Amino acid sequence: MVTNTPGYDELIMYLTQHLSIFEKPGKVAEGAPTVISFIEDDIAERIMTFCQQHKGLTTEQRSLIVREIDGIVYDLQEVLSGVINQPVTVEQKEFIDEFAGLVKNLFDSAFSNAGQ
After folding, report:
1. Most buried one in 7, 23, 32, 46, CB count within 10 A?
2. What is the pTM for the complete model shown?
3. Could you name the domain of life of the organism this protein comes from (predicted)?
4. How many domains does the chain have?
């Protein structure tokens, strides 16, 4: 659906271009979740919004979306493996939030292009 598209390839390139955000120390808010927890929560929130906006999704489509999201989170874990268990910094949080929005946009585009 999205992980095998040029848009996803561009999204991964965007991530790699901004890896420095994850390589340098930054301001951590008190009680900040780990990088991976924030990624999972933020992407899950975006996909729940997507599903609410597209109530006509079939069970098969929802299952495919879940598999794709699992793959995306896995890719992020691989790329960010050195920092996933560290508390998320303010700058990282902003980037992850933007990245999650772009993931949702990929699904929105795929869904609208499928003629749904």
Report:
1. 46
2. 0.90
3. Bacteria
4. 1
